[in-house]
Amino acid sequence: MVRFAKWRARDSFVCVSVCGVKLRLAGDKRKHNEGRVEVFYDGEWGTVCDDDFSIHSAQVVCRELGYLEAVSWSPSSKYGKGEGRIWFDNVQCTGKEKTLALCTSNGIGVSDCKHTEDVGVVCSDKRIPGFKFINTMANNVQSLNIQVEDVRIRAILSSYRKRIPVTEGYVEVKDGGKWKQICDVEWTKHNSRVICGMFGFPGERKMFARRRKPSYWDYSVNCTGNEAHVSSCKLGHAVAAKANSTCGGGTPVVVSCVPGRAFSPTPMTGFRKAFRQEQTLVRLRGGAIVGEGRVEVLKNGEWGTICDDNWSLLSATVVCRELGFGSAKEALSGGRLGQGMGPVHMNEIECSGFEKSITECFFNKESLGCSHEEDAAVRCNVPAMGFQERLRLSGGRNPNEGRVEVLVERNGSQAWGTVCSDGWGTIEAMVVCRQLDLGFASNAFQETWYWPGEVSADPVVMSGVRCSGTEMSLSQCLHHGAHLTCPKGGGRNAAGVSCSETAPDLVLNPQIVEQTTYMEDRPMFMLQCAYEENCLSTTSSETPASSHRRLLRFSSQIHNNGQSDFRPKAERHSWVWHDCHSHYHSMEVFTHYDLLSLNGTKVAEGHKASFCLEDTECEEGIEKRYECANFGEQGITVGCWDTYRHDIDCQWIDITDIKPGDYIFQVVINPNYEVPESDYSNNFMKCRCRYDGHRIWMYSCHNGETMVLSRRYCEPQELASDSMTIS
Fold first, then answer.
1. Gap between the Cα atoms of 346 and 358, Å rounded
2. What does the record give as the reaction this protein catalyses (predicted)?
3. Are 650 and 606 within 8 A, CB to CB?
4. pTM of the predicted protein model
């Protein structure tokens, strides 16, 4: 392709078409579809000045990058100042150009701008169907427009096509509306690795095909094995085809992918089990669907996060494959999927792409100073399980809400029906929203008369649904099977949901609990309000007013690390006023406090009704939005926390009747799942507790399911120095 420049006489602008010009989006704290516009030319990345830039120019940029359209554009280096040359200035597009290089401008590299004027764009989430091979120049292919519409793995045997997911078969590309197979000349295991990763599989194995006479694609493909998508591979030389359409000296490309343990199919019936994460030193938290979330690493018995400095698609892919998924679709930065708690274990990670675990990658052990605002996250390719085709929402005002309808076998044919709403709650709604790829549940409804669906789908086809929250499909939850029981019937009383892209995530700070624990002997006459609110054990009803109760007191600091504010389920008009404490209760029960024996038996309990949800403190740069005063709005803002001090009524467990011994202290936030959250696994905290009748020790407090105990905690002589005495 030849460079050319055409001068326009009236304004001396230049229309430039440059061979080898590429675009990308870059910058700080951004989504994958937004960022600073950067141009690659003459072996160097540079930027675009915001002078004369318009939404039409943004449209050209977004479409060139594969997005359907532009949403907006931003001047003045909103995504940070770039580096290197400013390649384009005074860009003026009509919006119909195929590439930014075809828009009028001062000319390539002609600019009087500074990097404070770097332009940015926001593109729509939707992609243009198909993809273009971007590395065509590397192998001397003389066209920049080699584009295919789609790629698939087509099962070799018709009987295997019913398996879910399809793990092996011919690799086919759709070109010019026709599916074509690829000749295996120049095909390598690295190519298979990339194809399998695209379709959600972490590994590949050898497989051979017999010679066939299909229609072959014209090119070979050369991958390194680290690409996230085949479009990032180099396009190889044209393949010489024989007259009978078979490729010279080769056969069709066949791949055999190794699925992660959670996605291993069973013959004919396919995937049956609820999702269970592979047991590794890495986990994902805070994601709406399986295969996405904040990356957390286990080190020295404690889960921590990864800083997003140098976080790349290559490192993200190592995480995805380690967890049994395919390659990474996105490497997210800036705490995009919520902020974690505890230490930041790794920073400035560099991976080759072939490591078995992210813990094998190089990282800067000396680099400090990362905050949880910089927590790294991933979105991984996962196998196509076909779950979305067996569930739908009907009658809602928008696609994110409606009556839940399930496709089932009835009298030998497929039919849609409703789900019984008896026992229907937030956890079940979460599974529905996940199955439909609609994010998190925002509400679960037990009546849907205001969402009339199709009359033919009114009959109940599923009842007794109970989910654990880890399922990928509603059919994986416990339910009654063929023996339906639903006294209320379907139709207007069927189950419904509304979904949201974001959700809050409450996390208790375990260090605050450990540091503030103490005992108090409090006279019964000072506990009348607490008695009325059931904050004392049942034996307190027999305690004379002159006697006392022994209370285990502590402070709790509850952070909202999610992506949306935590708001009580009940509307303001239904909050209950309590004369005794002169405040409104916005949730019937906000937390449970329990003391358990070492075998898990509950020996004492307490509860904290939501006397008030407010922003006690917030991270720097975040303003408080909720306060209790003057019947104010209640909630916890993202990035803020609500502190319940140890001296507040009911912020205790009544241990008057407890014998000396070793116990487990447990706190559960939002125990009834009244408010949807992105991660319920971190809603509980456990500590070891020792009580000798006069003093109490609280130690080894941990969030979530992991509590690693050191041997030293079992030694009484070491505990004595840290004892909490009676006040």
1. 10
2. L-lysyl-[protein] + O2 + H2O = (S)-2-amino-6-oxohexanoyl-[protein] + H2O2 + NH4(+)
3. yes
4. 0.76
For 245, the token pair is: 């359409």
Q: Residue 332 and residue 305: Cα distance in Å, rounded?
A: 13
Determine the Cα angle at 148 with ends 142 and 152, to 5°: 135
Q: Is the N-terminal amide bond of 568 cis, ω within 30° of 0?
A: no
Q: With the C-alpha atoms ordered 451, 452, 457, 460, is the resulting torsion angle positive or negative?
A: positive
pLDDT surpassing 60 at residue 51: yes
Beta carbons of 420 and 475 less than 8 angstroms apart:
no
d(CA 358, CA 558): 30
Taking CA atoms, 424 is separated from 106, 265, 385, 463, 487, in Å, by: 63, 29, 25, 9, 14
Distance (Å, whole) CA 409 – CA 412? 6
- 203's tokens: 């590994």
Cβ distance 591 to 671 under 8 Å?
yes
Contact call for residues 218 and 226 (beta carbons, < 8 A)? no
Indicate the pLDDT class of residue 539, thresholds 50, 70 and 90. confident
Rounded Cα gap, residues 651 and 554, in angstroms = 7
Per-residue confidence at 270, pLDDT binned at 50, 70, 90? very low
**Amino acid, res. 250:** G
603: phi then psi, degrees, rounded to nearest 5 = -115, -20
Of 309, 225, 211, residue with least CA distance to 254:
211
Beta bridge partners of residue 222, listed in sequence order: 234
Q: Give the integer Cα–Cα distance in Å for 606 and 646.
A: 13
d(CA 603, CA 593): 11
- Confidence (pLDDT) at 242: 52
Answer yes or no: are the C-beta atoms of 48 and 101 closer than 8 Å.
no
Q: How is residue 258 written in tokens?
A: 């190794």
Q: Over the chain, what is the mean pLDDT? A: 82
8 A C-beta contact, residue 637 and residue 624 = yes
pLDDT band at 231 (very low <50, low <70, confident <90, very high): confident
Q: At what angle do helices 189-198 and 313-322 cross, to 10 degrees?
A: 80
pLDDT of residue 155: 87
The answer to whether 132 touches 146, Cβ cutoff 8 Å, is yes
